[in-house]
Amino acid sequence: MNLWDQIIQQLELTLQAGPLTFGQVRGAFCGDLLSDVLANAAPGDLWITIHHHRNIVAVASLVNLSGIIISNNRLPDPETVEAAIKEGIPLFTTPLNNFMASGELFKILSDNSII
Amino acid sequence: MEELSQHLLDVAVNSLEAGATEITININENMRANTLQIEVTDNGPGITKADIARVKDPFYTTKNNKRVGLGIPLFMEAVERCGGSFDIQAQSQQGTVVTATFPHNHLDRVPLGDVAGTLITLLAANDFDFQYCHRYNDKSFYFNTRDFRVLLRDIPVKTPEIMVWLKNYLHNNIMELRRGKKVEEFRRTG
C-alpha cells in the first residue's frame, strides 16, 4: 500500500477536492494560526487544521504544502473547494480531531522513515 | 472562534442577558484604511469601570456570576492576535458599547462568517429590537426590526415563513454588499 493510501485509510479521510495525482508528502504540520503555518510549515508538509475557509488554500498554495486535512468532521466552504481545485491542492476532511489525526499521521510518517 | 459572527452573537447575548431591549450593530469595512470594525451598542443598564476590568479577565469569573465568562477574553484574543484594537465603554446615560477593530487583510483575522444566521438566531430566541448597519467602503446596507414590524402589521416576526424570508433577505444583501472586494488580490476571504 502506498503512503497516500495508508494516510487516507488510517486518518479516515474523505477527498473533498484536488488533483488526480497527489504530490509527495515530505512531512506534516498541525496548527490553526494561519500566520504560524505560513512561517513554520515546510514545502511538502501535509497540514491538519480546523479551519475550513478559503484562506487555508491560499496558505497551502504559498507554502507549497502537499495537502490539507480539515479535522473534526468540519466541511470546507464551497469557495474553499473551488480554490483547492483551482490551485490543485488535495483537500480532505476527517472525523478525527487535530490530536488524533496528528497522532495517526505521525505513526505513518515515522514508520515510513519520513520524519 | 472560527468566525467573527460568533463573537457578535456572544456580545449580543451578554447584552440581552443584562436586560437590553435594543441592540445596534455596526459593521464597518474600509479597504482603503484596511479595517474591519464591529461595534455593538445596547440600551442595557451599562457597565461599571470595575466590571470592565472584570469581563476582560477570564480568571476572575466564578459560577455565581453568570454574566461574565470567556466571551470577552476570547473576542479580545481574536483582536490582539492580528494586531487590532478592542474597547468596552459605558455610555453616559445607559447602555454599553463594545468595539473591535481588525486589520482587514490580516491572515489571522477569521472570516466575518454568517452574520444573517446570527441575527436570525438572536431574533428567534429573544424579544428585542435591533438595528443593523453594514458599511463596505462607500456602500452600505441598513435594516431595523422596528420598521420591519410596522411593515408586517399583525404578522409576528417569529412566524417561520417570515424568519426564513428575513434570513435570506439579510444574507443576500450582505453578500451583495461585500461582493465588490478584490479577494484575488488579497488572497483572503471573509
Describe the protein in words.
Chain A is of the alpha/beta class and about 120 residues long. Chain A has a single domain (about 15-110), classed as HprK N-terminal domain-like (Udp-n-acetylmuramoylalanyl-d-glutamate--2,6- Diaminopimelate Ligase, Chain: A, domain 1). In chain A, strands 1-5-4-3-2 form a five-stranded mixed beta sheet, with helices on both faces. Chain A is built from five helices and five strands. The radius of gyration of chain A is 12 Å and the shape is globular. Chain A has helices at about 5-10, 35-40, 55-65, 80-85, 100-110; strands spanning about 15, 25-30, 45-50, 65-70, 90-95. Residues about 180-185 of chain B have low confidence and may be disordered. Chain B has about 190 residues and is of the alpha+beta class. In chain B, strand 3 (about 85-90) and strand 4 form a beta hairpin. In chain B, strands 3-4-2-1-5-6 form a six-stranded mixed beta sheet. Classes of the chains: A alpha/beta (about 120), B alpha+beta (about 190). The interface of A and B includes residues 38, 50, 55, 58 and 77 of A.
Features:
heterodimer, A: 115 residues, alpha/beta, Udp-n-acetylmuramoylalanyl-d-glutamate--2,6- Diaminopimelate Ligase, Chain: A, domain 1, 17% strand, B: 6-stranded mixed beta sheet
Entry summary:
The complex is a heterodimer of chains A (115) and B (190). Chain A is an alpha/beta fold and 115 residues long.
Series of secondary-structure elements of chain B, N-terminal to C-terminal? HEEHHEEHEEHHH
Helix content percent band of chain A: 40-55%
Structural class of chain B: alpha+beta
Principal-axis shape of chain B = globular
Name the CATH class of chain A. Alpha Beta
Give Rg of chain A in angstroms.
12 Å
